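Our preliminary data section would be incomplete without showing what the modeling component actually yields. Below, a chain of 183 amino acids is followed by its predicted structure, encoded as tokens that our downstream tools consume directly.
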Amino acid sequence: TAVGSMEEAGANALILQMKGREGQLNWVSQQPLAVAAGVSGQDQSVNDALTAWNQGEVYTVARLCCFRDNTLPYQNNAVALRASYGNWRDELGLRWLDPAKAEGQAYVAGLCGELAALGFDEILLDNWAFPTDGELGWIKADANYPADGRTAALEVFLEEVRAGLAEFPEVKVSLVTTASAAA
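Predicted structure:
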């Protein structure tokens, strides 16, 4: 029915939300952090169906909410963006992974690799930068969250994503951004 709906709408691509801002994954992941936090999908048939679907003619995009993740930082403070009161929360009351921490970067890059292996044509990264909304002054500045050097941390992250997709050169990566995040 998806193909029929797409044809009726004149669409030529399908975007699937594979990781939302709550952190739940819509496929079975092998990433240790996902398994430990209980955010990995549980039904292997979903992975099988995605692989089969992605072999078809429809251009598929996996949308991935990168660092805005309300669950993993709650389960594992070592990857959380911190404030003096605990896990920092944005304007929606949601927790974030710290974009400068290597473990969180590796987690997201590993998820991208898994999605590429499932056959997606493109991976759309949302919330891939440092937060720009909410009480930013409450974020604890430390060696992992410097007042400057955020651009360098994001460059490291994007390079890790690129390296993780090296065996999938046909997979495109796109970034969702805002004017404030781009600045």
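DSSP finds seven helices and six strands in the chain. The helical segments are 2-9, 32-37, 44-54, 72-75, 102-117, 150-164, 179-182. Preliminary results of this kind motivate Aim 1 of the renewal.
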